[in-house]
Design a protein that fits this description.
Elements lengths: L6 H13 L3 H9 L2 H9 L6 E4 L8 H6 L3 E6 L2 H13 L5 E4 L12 E7 L8 H10 L1 E12 L4 H9 L19 H8 L3 E13 L5 H11 L1 H11 L4 H15 L9 E12 L25 H13 L10 H11 L10 H44 L2 H19 L7 H7 L8 H10 L4 H13 L8
Parallel strand pairs: 1-2, 1-4, 2-3, 4-5
Antiparallel strand pairs: 5-7, 6-7
């Protein structure tokens, strides 16, 4: 007899497992920082249309709604959604709460600007189905973001500890912590997304005084731990599980016996959706450019997708300005009916679309530089006004500089005269200097130039 579990029965058991215990209290105790962390990584802003898959109590949905996004929170377990709805109403926030299976989402293709999941979708048994659905409901150029426990971290070790005592997994199911591995994500999503963030971090847990209180918290509130303990009790092995959990807590405690501290590693993964078509009911999706493995649907779709990619980080609709119009018109001149690869053309047009931004950035840099120079000049003038006594010495120094420049015009055959003249005393007035120059036998034409310089005033320019 086959051991396969019908899909409806599997979902029923899965829903009941997460409804057992008190997962909302676990969120309130130490999981709250994870939701805002994912929202920040996805760059969610006001006006975006956001889907939180396996949202649970809305740990990521509610922070996204606080930023002004239009948020839909979906989860397989209605009890968790009810807890999240109550929390949102208490904060005065409006969200849409939808009971949905992460492996078969009840939403249209390309419906959301951001599709995210914080330690939620990773617990669905069939990983590839979940990845396909996340990509399908995200618009071209939109954002797919996940926060998952890593297999090497503490939660990954917890599932390895509970594994021998848990019910056997259904056929085709994969361990949840695999979602926290970069390579596993690349295999699931393939070339349908472009990963822009793959970053590991730790959640610090300091809510428990003694290390083993952490294990007791899981046994009383966490659905997977409750299910594993119930299955172990069938064979009288619950004591073994309790001992294994105690040992696990002692091993992962980074604090003291009276002040426990744990670190749970997670992976933040954020990507841009690159698909034009959508995989649904066995249909093969189409890529942004090129013929491998599917051809570009049309030049117009490629142009629109490029515009969406340019604006996806800010969640704004594609702009209808002149660079985007030029992008569309030039793409239309490339005929892809013969299976021509549009990748070079798309790359060239992307550079053209970004060039006005670069030029604008350069103009801004030049304007800032000019402003800094003006500020420096103003500061210099203010300083001169505050220190007028020093200006007298400055004028004297300038007069001396003019005399020196005047003396440099002595012809080569009269260099002896230049040596005889030497340095003039800057404290002398102009009449005394003239007499000194005459006494030192300065040539008449230089003396005349000096007299003309005196007649023009102290600030007249010096030249040949």
């Amino acid at each position: 007899m086959s051991s396969a579990v019908p899909d409806s029965d599997l979902k029923t058991r899965h829903r009941a497992m997460w409804a057992s215990g008190d997962y909302p209290s676990m969120v309130e105790t130490f999981l709250l920082p994870l939701g805002p962390r994912l929202v920040d990584a996805c760059g969610i802003e006001a006006g975006m249309k956001v889907l939180d898959v396996a949202a649970g109590t809305g740990n990521a949905s509610i922070p996204a709604a606080e930023r002004g996004a239009a948020v839909t929170a979906s989860d397989l377990t209605p009890e968790l959604l009810d807890a999240g709805r109550q929390r949102a109403e208490a904060d005065g926030l409006e969200l849409e709460w939808v009971t949905a299976d992460a492996e078969s989402l009840p939403f249209e293709d390309a419906s959301f600007d951001v599709v995210m999941s914080s330690i939620g979708a990773m617990f669905a048994p069939h990983h590839q189905d979940v990845a396909d659905e996340l990509v399908r409901v995200c618009r071209p150029g939109g954002t797919v973001g996940m926060l998952n426990w890593t297999p090497e971290g503490m939660i990954g070790a917890l599932f390895r500890t509970m594994g021998p005592f848990a019910p056997p997994p259904p056929p085709g199911a994969q361990p949840p912590p695999l979602w926290g591995g970069e390579q596993h994500l690349r295999e699931l999503f393939g070339d349908r997304v472009d990963w822009r963030t793959l970053e590991r971090d730790n959640l610090e847990i300091t809510a428990f005084d003694r290390p083993r209180d952490y294990g007791e918290h899981f046994k009383a509130r966490y659905g997977p731990t409750i299910a594993a303990r119930a299955n172990a009790a069938k064979d009288g092995r619950e004591g073994e599980l309790d001992d294994a959990l105690d040992q696990f807590c002692d091993e992962w405690n980074r604090g003291s016996d009276d002040d426990a501290r744990f670190e749970a590693e997670y992976l933040v993964a954020v990507a841009t959706d690159l698909l034009l078509g959508r995989k649904r009911c066995g249909a093969e999706p189409q890529r942004l450019v090129g013929q491998q493995p599917a051809a570009v649907a049309s030049p117009r779709e490629a142009a629109i997708t490029l515009q969406l990619l340019e604006s996806s980080r800010h969640g704004r609709a594609a702009c209808a300005n002149e660079p985007c119009d030029r992008l569309v018109s030039q793409l239309h001149r490339h005929d892809d009916s013969a299976g021509r690869d549009l990748s070079p053309a798309v790359g060239e047009l992307r550079e053209q679309h970004q060039q006005p931004r670069l030029e604008s950035r350069g103009a801004s840099d030049r304007a800032r530089k000019r402003e800094r120079m003006r500020a420096a000049h103003r500061a210099r003038d203010e300083c001169a006004g505050q220190h007028r006594p020093a200006c007298r010495g400055l004028r004297e120094a300038r007069a001396e500089q003019r005399e020196a420049r005047l003396l440099q015009h002595v012809p080569a055959d009269e260099v002896g005269h230049q040596r005889v003249v030497g340095r003039l005393d800057p404290r002398m007035d102009d009449v005394a200097r003239t007499e000194q120059l005459r006494a030192r036998h300065l040539p008449d034409h230089h003396l005349a130039a000096h007299q003309a310089r005196h007649d023009q005033g102290p600030d007249a320019p010096i030249g040949r």
